[in-house]
Amino acid sequence: MGVDEMQNHAVEQEGTTATGEEVLDGVVLFGKYALLKVLGYGAFGKVYQAKNLETGQSVAIKVVSKNKVVKKGLAAQIEREIAIMHQLRHPHIIELFEVLATKTKIYFVMEFANGGELFHKVKKGRFSEDLSRRYFQQLLSAVKYCHSIGVYHRDLKLDNLLIDENMKLKVTDFGLGAVKDQTRPDGLLHTVCGTPAYVAPEILAKKGYDGAKVDVWSCGVILFVLTAGYLPFNDQNIAVMYRKICRGQFRLPRWTSPDLRRFISRMLDTNPESRITVDEILRDPWFLKGYREVQCSKLRHWTEPEENERRKSLNAFDLISFSSCLDMSGLFGEPEVSDSVERIVSEETPERIMEKVVEMATAERVRVKRNTNGCGGARLEGQDGNLVIILGIYRLTDELVMVEIHKRETKDGGSAQFWKHKLRPQLLQFVYKPEAIISGDSK
User: pTM for this structure?
Assistant: First the structure.
């Protein structure tokens, strides 16, 4: 039964959660998440509040339409957002718990911040200088962390700042995020992106920019709005607004303190070379008032492990990336998947799987060459060169392993036939079958 079929079945069976809450249209995704209400609308779909039926935890689920993403040519952006959010663990950044998918949709299951967008709170009236400082300190803590691991948000704005039940700020939406690897030989980023009222002048100049410096500019715009109650650069004519941004034409309200005026002016410096840096902000007297460094033991740094180490211990996101349903290396490509590579997930030990492969290969008079590079697996070769199959066995979690099968093409199709009629039936007995899976048959 595919995911959509399972979800339709859930619709028939479920109308409320175990705690009696009403489920939106009775929809339960993947037998695990009950949709409660719509939180908002994005470019590619809706964002829902949902409840994890196993833990009772409230989550936010962003639904992305693959079709819309492909039509707009933004597949790489979605892949990058997943990769970036997977790495981020900070008290003031929304956490991505997991990514699920069907053939037509991708589901981002994220931390739920029930206070809504900071934008809606500012709309009710500007904040005091002390309250503005408190939220700005939390924002900068998140930005500093991102920059320290080579991640640049590039779309910081009030709409992307959420508030949780403890009135703590949470940064979200890394859809325009970039990493250091995206810089060109000149050390700069060149993609023109961002929200018009928050975009830095060097992005508009289209000559390359430093991701850290444009984030600081956007932080300056945010702090201005928190304390003033309106945008520093605003005009119905976007060309006029861009001229104001490039010239740095803004006026702080009379009620702002001299220290705050100086501080904001340094962030909204049109010259990125003289603009205040994150390190300088952390030493500024206005910023430091009441500031406490965030302590977090869950930070995970942006590192790319050695290939052998990565292969020996993959995580749940790697499982998704290997799935034919959600392949991060070709997520939005043609639906046909090459027959040369297949993968299965199992709860069996690598040793037991390899034992079965050797037993079967020996009976079929197929040579087995075990890997000696520390990565589980083997190479199977036919006596007359009519087949070559390479197996890799990688640990996903403490309980799960993945078997990756590469079938080298031969003139008589021996590899494919051997896999289909001999090896595959033996390995199918080890396939992991959870109650709800991401199925390649789902719609």
Answer: 0.66
